Amino acid sequence: MRPDLVATAAALDLLPRESVRGSVIGLGGLAVTLEGFGPLAAIGDRVRLEPPGGLPVLAEIAAFRDGRAEAIALGPLTGLSAGARAVLAPRPALAVSDSWLGRVLDPMGQPMDGRPPPAPGAQPRPTHAPAPPAGRRARLGPRMALGVRALDLFAPVRQGQRLGLFAASGVGKSTLMAMLAGGVAADVIVFALVGERGRELREFIEDDLGPERLAKSVVICATSDTAAPVRREAAYAAMTVAEHFRDQGRQVLLLMDSVTRFALALREIGLAVREPPATRGYPPSVFTELPRLLERAGPGEEGCTGAVTALFTVLVEGDDHDEPVADAVRGILDGHVVLDRRIAEGGRYPPVDVLRSLSRTAPAVLDPHERPLVAEARRLLSTYGEVKDLVRLGAYRPGNDPEADAAVRLAPAIEQVLTQPKGETSDPDQAFAALAAALSDPA
């Protein structure tokens, strides 16, 4: 490259972003068409839209077409018109610090709890960052006690593992998240509430979480009425907060509710910039972005003693566990937990379907004396599922099948072990002792 061009490019890099200006030339739906930035703007850049006589609105560049930029606004477009000035703004970054603990914040780090903004950390972190290099990433740590017997027994988790919670709406995901927050052995808990109902935020904070659990937590929330980029950014912001504490050597539990609403926000953005819909209306970029987010959870680079253990909830539409988002997430994560509506309707909470739940790290987690207990319990519950309708109808005859007889005797005791009221905590040793007692056959 010619020396004068190299010098020009270097000078452009040093140009303050606030000095780079363009204008609005088109508005349609969620998208804003901009011109005047030339090669100085890039995908993911933020732009401040300044309508005459109105309040500025942030937008994010999502596509380029015919030499023009297409951006998605992070707020309402009311009052914006063609010709409005657009100013290139800094890319999203968060200066996380310990003062964020105990706070409820939006994806930009602004308070939602009525308190002053938290003190910023020394070094801002970009919210859109790559995962640690696979070849230099640390191994998973030892078993992490979750405090929920059904999970500690049938879906055990190691430090740095990523697990999915798959359920339809109204089955008990929020209650299970609150139980995990109260019983898990973690230094810091980060909540990502993506597309949450505004009415439920205070209920979750005050009733489910409580002041004691909130004190070691950071809650990042984007309610359902916010723009799609804000809802998407809630997931990235929470992951950035979790990475900050992980890099300090702390054990972090990240609870994200939900990955499905994150994917829906990505779909809104993709369709707004005319990306072609593919699988069930989801553009291809959704399935590119999902692993970029989910792979960031886990251990840090080798030598880092901290880890992000993550549980991501997935809303399955109509109990369809093979819909595209659920299928993609299940293939990325290290295991899945299925919450079943029929179990909840039967009165057993948490309604974990242990036969359909799986932890890919279970073989390395369970001790030799624990594995046969889990295998026997699974076998008995499976057999009982095959004959329980006959038992209810009075058509079952004891003595014909010894295995079925054992299942009919012992399955209720196993179900009792899996029953755990909200506020009750357990540890793996207690859970396996209870399971061993339930499997002791007096017959």
UniProtKB/TrEMBL annotation:
SMART domains: AAA (SM00382)
GO cellular component: cytoplasm; type III protein secretion system complex
Molecular function GO terms recorded: ATP binding; ATP hydrolysis activity; protein-exporting ATPase activity; proton-transporting ATP synthase activity, rotational mechanism
Subcellular location field: Cytoplasm
Reactions it catalyzes: ATP + H2O + cellular proteinSide 1 = ADP + phosphate + cellular proteinSide 2
Family matches, as Pfam families: ATP-synt_ab, T3SS_ATPase_C
UniProt entry keywords in alphabetical sequence: ATP-binding, Cytoplasm, Nucleotide-binding, Protein transport, Translocase, Transport
Region listing for Disordered, in residue ranges: 107-138
Biased amino acid composition, Pro residues: 114-133
Gene3D superfamilies: 3.40.50.12240
Domain AAA+ ATPase, residue spans: 159-344
One GO biological process term: protein secretion by the type III secretion system
Record protein name field: FliI/YscN family ATPase
Organism: Neoroseomonas eburnea
Source taxonomy: Bacteria, Pseudomonadati, Pseudomonadota, Alphaproteobacteria, Acetobacterales
